[in-house]
């Protein structure tokens, strides 16, 4: 265990060191918010991949695979599908966007819509940040050196400090290498586990295993409209696009990651469904990957560091994105001098709130899906309408956002506590009502949204 402690201490110190180095390199708000818009395709791809393959992806796939078998492939498979759709919109997003998603809403529907988004998105994204803290806590508690709460505190404090001092420069610098570590770790575990098993030990992939009584067609449909769609319209995804040097690099990065996620989905699902009985039973309270029981301490320490890399990257990106959006609410424009200072204050505040949520809610899937349900119901259709230049009634955008968001949130909560399909019914109604309000009547030239020219 001493070797594990040394490796983890070195890992956390390296993260903080990179943050301090990047702090010294930050010369402008653009450097801190979008790394000066100088990202190459491999930097943006690495950062996008590391952002997506965080605690929500790894633990979410493991949790679902141990409950629903091969149907867990849909979890990251739906993320990949969302990214392929995003690739068609990347050029327009890159051309119109600057720092945040609410800015785009402001372009499409005016300042009121932008201000509402700057209030609601960070609130919803607290659950997304909390999901990463939950992942870090489960990883650290799984090795027996920390309790769940101690792991949450350690992971939370480190990623808050890392994000606070270095911003997007430190995130973009480390994410590519963290992506390589994540891929190497997952492939090694997959290879070791595959070599241990005989063909009879591996459940076959069939139509009934991809959709079953634990995860049926209805579950897949609502996963697509509440999870997959957030990769088409997502604040953290858009910040990666805004970091790209040009539109071509942005689109290429999205396509590369969409393809790369598919084998990762297979490896994670395979590792989950082939877990030993003892490992599977522990997965509800700890993060356990098959094969870790026979690794030597130094290898286990490196594995934990690799998994933490996935968590830290997603946590820092989502936290910084949320903090930028809140700061924008108070300054009106992130190019103002005080925006940088305000963003750093909100990094601390939102990070602390997410840490409190993570201590109380220990399920990655619950924290993630509740947060994303609200975001999806509120913002997906207005954003797609803006990007596609659909003729909507701009006077009804604010009611559509509020009604859709809170109804979808209510549906997700109902689905957690009430049997039957009432929760799914409410989520469907949220999207329908959102669309009805936006398209209730053809907008007159006076109240139609004025889309920016290409």
Describe the structure in your own words:
77% of the residues lie in helices and 0% in strands. The radius of gyration is 21 Å and the shape is globular. It is mostly helical and 454 residues long. About 2% of the residues have low confidence. Helix 7 packs antiparallel against helix 16, helix 8 packs across helix 14 and helix 11 crosses helix 12. The longest helix is centred in the middle third of the chain and has 49 residues. The protein has one domain: Up-down Bundle (Sodium/glucose cotransporter).
Top-tier CATH class: Mainly Alpha
| Average predicted confidence as pLDDT | 81
Radius of gyration: 21 Å
Strand content: under 5%
CATH homologous superfamily (4th level) name = Sodium/glucose cotransporter
Count of discrete domains? 1
CATH architecture: Up-down Bundle
Low-confidence stretches: 280-287
Per-chain topology:
Blueprint: H1 2-25, H2 29-34, H3 41-52, H4 55-68, H5 73-96, H6 101-109, H7 111-142, H8 148-196, H9 207-210, H10 217-226, H11 235-243, H12 247-273, H13 277-282, H14 297-331, H15 337-360, H16 364-388, H17 397-417, H18 422-438
């Amino acid at each position: 265990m001493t070797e594990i402690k040394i490796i983890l201490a070195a890992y956390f110190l390296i993260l903080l060191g990179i943050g301090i180095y990047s702090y010294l390199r930050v010369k402008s708000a653009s450097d801190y918010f979008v790394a000066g818009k100088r990202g190459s395709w491999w930097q943006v791809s690495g950062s996008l991949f590391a952002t997506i393959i965080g605690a929500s992806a790894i633990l979410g796939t493991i949790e679902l695979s141990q409950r629903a078998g091969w149907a867990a492939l849909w979890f990251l498979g739906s993320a990949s599908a969302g990214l392929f759709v995003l690739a068609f919109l990347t050029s327009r997003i890159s051309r119109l966007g600057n720092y945040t998603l609410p800015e785009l809403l402001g372009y499409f529907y005016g300042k009121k819509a932008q201000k509402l988004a700057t209030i609601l998105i960070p609130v919803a994204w607290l659950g997304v940040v909390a999901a990463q803290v939950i992942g870090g806590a489960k990883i650290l508690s799984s090795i027996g050196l920390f309790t769940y709460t101690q792991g949450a505190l350690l992971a939370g404090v480190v990623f808050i400090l890392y994000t606070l001092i270095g911003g997007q420069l430190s995130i973009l610098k480390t994410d590519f290498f963290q992506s390589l570590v994540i891929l190497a770790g997952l492939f090694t575990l997959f290879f070791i586990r595959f070599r241990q098993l005989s063909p009879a030990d591996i459940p076959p992939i069939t139509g009934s295993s991809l959709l079953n009584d634990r995860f049926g067609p209805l579950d897949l449909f609502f996963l697509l409209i509440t999870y997959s769609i957030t990769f088409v319209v997502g604040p953290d995804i858009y910040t990666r696009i805004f970091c790209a040097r040009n539109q071509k690099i942005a689109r290429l990065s999205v396509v590369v990651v969409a393809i790369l996620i598919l084998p990762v989905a297979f490896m994670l699902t395979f590792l989950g469904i082939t877990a030993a009985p003892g490992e599977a039973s522990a997965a509800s309270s700890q993060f356990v990957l098959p094969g870790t029981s026979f690794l030597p301490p130094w290898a286990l320490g490196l594995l934990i560091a690799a998994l933490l890399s996935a968590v830290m990257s997603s946590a820092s990106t989502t936290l910084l994105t949320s903090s930028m959006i809140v700061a924008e609410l108070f300054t009106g424009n992130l190019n103002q001098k005080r925006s940088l200072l305000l963003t750093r204050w909100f990094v601390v505040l939102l990070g602390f709130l997410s840490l409190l949520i993570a201590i109380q809610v220990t399920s990655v899937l619950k924290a993630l899906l509740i947060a994303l349900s609200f975001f999806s119901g509120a913002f997906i259709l207005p954003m797609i309408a803006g990007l596609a230049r659909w003729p909507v009634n701009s006077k009804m955008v604010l009611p559509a956002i509020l009604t859709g968001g809170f109804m979808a949130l209510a549906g997700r909560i109902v689905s957690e506590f009430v049997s039957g399909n009432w929760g799914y019914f409410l989520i469907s109604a949220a999207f329908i009502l959102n669309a009805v309000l936006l398209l209730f009547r053809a907008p007159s030239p006076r109240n139609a949204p004025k889309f920016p020219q290409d």
